[in-house]
Write a structure and sequence with these properties.
Blueprint lengths: L4 E3 L1 H16 L3 H20 L5 E6 L2 E7 L5 E8 L7 E8 L18
Parallel strand pairs: 1-5
Antiparallel strand pairs: 2-3, 3-4, 4-5
Amino acid sequence: MARDIVLAADFVKDVTAHVRWLTARREWSRIEGLERGLAEVEKQLAWLPACGVIMQREGGAVLRKVILRKLPMAVWYGYLEADADAAIHLLRLFHVRQSTPTPDLRTWRPRRR
């Protein structure tokens, strides 16, 4: 069974900011590519959440990072590792060359279904 995908507020802000930046530069095809890439990653994570690189583990939660297949963007996500029904929480979206802080698992509160 596929897991639910939850978009964290910071992830939505990151996507919105990136789309605004692309819009200001009239990069319409890159916006479409981002939409396709994010949809692809959501499908992939729903069925195979362990596909990303482990960045942190704490208290049963795991933080992973996956690079979009056709774009230089990284999605940081977290979930409860031992709960096969736990939702996948998309936490942040960053450019791969962007200097970024690691999302903090202590501030992310996964919930069981």
